[in-house]
Amino acid sequence: MKIFLRALLATFTVSLLMMSSFMVGYVMRDREDGSNQSFPILKEAYSILIQHGLTDPPPAPALEYGMVRGMLQAYNEPHTIFVEPVQHELDTNALEGRFGGIGVQLGKDAEGYWVLFPFPEGPARDAGVQEGDRLLSIEGQAITAETSTESLQSSVRGPVGTRVTLEIGRPPDYTPQKISMERAEIPLPSVTWRLEPVDPRLGILDVNLIAATTTKELVTGVEDLKGRGATCFALDLRNNPGGLLTAGVDIASLFLKEGVIIQEQYRGRDVETYSVEKPGELANLPLVVLIDHGSASASEIAAGALQVHQRALLIGTPSYGKDTIQLVFELKDGSSLHITSAHWWIPGLEPPVGSSGLQPDILVEPASDAAAIDPFIQAAIQACFPQP
């Protein structure tokens, strides 16, 4: 199982880091807003380009995507972005914490070919895929060294229960053969956990993304670490770009007994308040929280609420400072617009998140390459187990 989790995290790390909007919001289908913009200058410029350009224009999607990006550049709001279909699908999978897939890790061999490493007990392994098999095509679509990781991941994914056919070449002769398999639900964990080797009394809960499954994973991690001797816990939100607003609220609620977590406001609407509805399952757990400049958005909601209610010390460096909400509108071709639509704040927190990020209770200098131990972890040990 540990190998399975490590492989999954390695496969999707790049995808998670590309979620530059640090999404706090939810997916909505595209909708007409009733406006009747005809954009005459754009149409005129397009016509001139087509008639007089020396070279042929790029295919329609690329040209249209460029127009959308130009519009957003003029709009000039840093977290309002356009995401192409493949990346939007991967981001959505990560936030949901699961996807329909075949259970493989992708890699490249010495000659640059894409090769497969099936997970134990996954559909690919059950269908006969072996480690090192070259991936030649997916559903008849040829795979080359230039095919992107995102395109491959998107191609092998699909609704649970549907079938996909791969053409693979097996060493040493790499004779092509087709293998068909049924997609199954593949979990994509947002939390990993471990005992700290320097002091095994400290349990580390490393949260890489705030997803729909994060709260449940945290409870599972705490139960496992308690059974192995942990008595104090570090919620590690370093380099966590955020995720779902409601999941960030749920994480804070998990560790609190009562109180307001955040308030939010959309343009032209009343302020909405999110409060703890009942004492959290881990409300009495000894806890510290690790943050850095990569902690943003929904991870700042969780950390900031715990700080303002004096539930846990924040250890590290100031966080990113993102206090806006993006609504995610899925367009007709599977691409998406992430539109900044609201502002959130934590009542009683000074200074506010948006001004300079969360301010740690215990400031830590980032580790040098020669450091024998992570200084963030060292500070967590000292906070959890102070010397007399």
Question: Can you tag this structure with a few keywords?
Answer:
disordered N terminus, 11 helices, six-stranded antiparallel beta sheet, single chain, 388 residues
Mean pLDDT: 86
The proportion of residues forming helix, as a percent range, comes to 25-40%
Q: What is the straight-line distance between the termini?
A: 40 Å
Shape: globular
What structural class is derived from the secondary structure elements?
A: alpha+beta
Radius of gyration: 24 Å
Sketch the major β-sheet. 6 strands, mixed
| Quaternary status | single chain
Q: Would you report the number of β strands?
A: 20
β-strand percent reads 25-35%
> In terms of per-residue confidence, which ranges show pLDDT below 50 for 5 or more consecutive residues?
1-22
Number of helices: 11
Structure, explained:
The chain has 388 residues and is of the alpha+beta class. The chain is 31% helix and 27% strand. Strands 1, 2, 14, 15, 18 and 19 form a six-stranded mixed β-sheet that branches. Strands 4, 5, 6, 7, 8 and 9 form a six-stranded antiparallel β-sheet that branches. A hairpin with a 5-residue loop joins strand 18 and strand 19. The chain starts with a helix and ends with a helix.
Question: How are the SSEs ordered, and which strands pair?
Answer:
Elements: H1 2-17, E1 27-29, H2 40-52, H3 60-75, E2 81-83, H4 85-96, E3 98-101, E4 104-108, E5 114-118, H5 123-127, E6 133-138, E7 141-142, H6 149-156, E8 163-170, E9 175-182, E10 184-187, E11 191-195, E12 202-207, H7 214-227, E13 232-236, H8 245-255, E14 260-266, E15 272-275, E16 287-291, H9 298-308, E17 313-316, E18 324-330, E19 336-345, H10 353-356, E20 362-363, H11 375-384
Parallel strand pairs: 1-18, 12-13, 13-16, 16-17, 17-20
Antiparallel strand pairs: 2-19, 3-10, 4-5, 5-6, 6-7, 6-8, 8-9, 11-12, 14-15, 14-19, 18-19
Helix pairs in contact: 4-6, 8-9
